[in-house]
Amino acid sequence: MILAEATTAASHAPIPSLIWVAPFVALLLCIAILPLLKKTEHWWHHNQSKLIVAVLLGILTLTYYLLREFGSAVHDPFLVKLFHTIGLHVHEHDGHHLAEPGLANAAAALGNGLMEYIPFMSLLFSLYVISGGITVRGDIPAHPRTNVAFLAIGGVMASLIGTTGASMLLIRPLLKTNSERKHVVHTVIFFIFIVSNIGGTLLPIGDPPLFLGYLKGVPFLWTLGLWKEWAFTIALLLVIYYFWDSLAYKKETFPDIRRDETLVEKLSISGKINFLFLAGVVLATGTLAPGRPFMGTSWEPFTFCRELTQTAFVLLSLALTPKGLRKENNFNYVAILEVACLFIGIFVCMQVPIEILNAKGSALGIDSPRKFFWATGLLSSFLDNAPTYVVFFETAKAMAAGAGPGFMDILGGGHIQLDFLVAISLGAVFMGANTYIGNGPNFMVKSIAEHSGVKMPSFFGYMLFSACVLMPTFVVMMLVFL
Fold this sequence. Notes:
The chain is mostly helical. It contains 20 helices and 6 strands.
């Protein structure tokens, strides 16, 4: 019998067996391991292969929901109406809508996943495509202060246009600026640390895990309250980088320094209209949440209004940006399709662990902000920080005894302890920088750098950098703020 016999003490509702977490774990392990094995490296490189794995494991999860003997919650009112329209059985119990066992139950699991997957991918796709129409040209002397300025600007932009958008926008001009220098590897690594990860802390559009938190009911502007931890960590990393790059600069040969000082091209930006479209995406994301009043009015945006608006800005960008700019950026859709292929499986497969965590999260023994920070962060280093955030968000939410001082009311229902949410958010965003696979832009930046002639370290070589630089930085940040 597929159904597990365990029950919660409070509701006596059945809990899925841990064995059905296996598809979710298997998918994350595929993401982490298959790119590293010689026998699977080439096969996994193709997005079609990623989609096959994601769909097969998703089907396995949906089969479990189809065959199990108890129903599951239907989270979104849109799904409830849709199910009633097409004849799938959903009933109300204790204020929740539950799908009947069988086809309705499998449809509920798929629907719950898609209702998070669609806005998640819409935001990433919008930021990716629109930022791809902005071209930064130029080659200025690659002094340590110049590189620090690049990293600092990127650390701010990552929260405004996303870590993917900021990485795409700035990595090529940074590489061109440093093209006359030989010692460049550390600059790319710190770029991944700051621009591709930690910089995206201040807004939900900055990094995928924070956007998932927003979809689950965290207020859009709440993450601005993390500015102290963000500023402290980035400032500390910039100081470390400045001294490191100053030493590296002294090792450059005289001919290289002379070429760097004489081959100068003034910085310029083309495709500036896309900044307007990026601002539109940010505004739409923060104000067009279904079921929430629009900017204090009585009107509530309809389902997918936000996503349709984001798509409209993408179409405007594609129509109004000179085609040569994206070609100059070597823009293509491979990276965003990779995310789309993998995350369709992740959002479906994670339905089981979320159910279990909702029921038993308080029994895991993770009961302090520092434990949440390291548990979320270390898993985010080797798996993917977006689903890892969701897992620990649900754990902390299940542990909340109720409303009161020190707790946040989650929009849509439930509560979460604020210091736990801070720790989970910081752990997921910050420690996605620990490995190449912790966050989507990491591998993208590595690939672009290697195509530009920079010999990047191996998987474990990169981890040596993060262990020596990031881990001590995170310990100091934790001691100060958590």
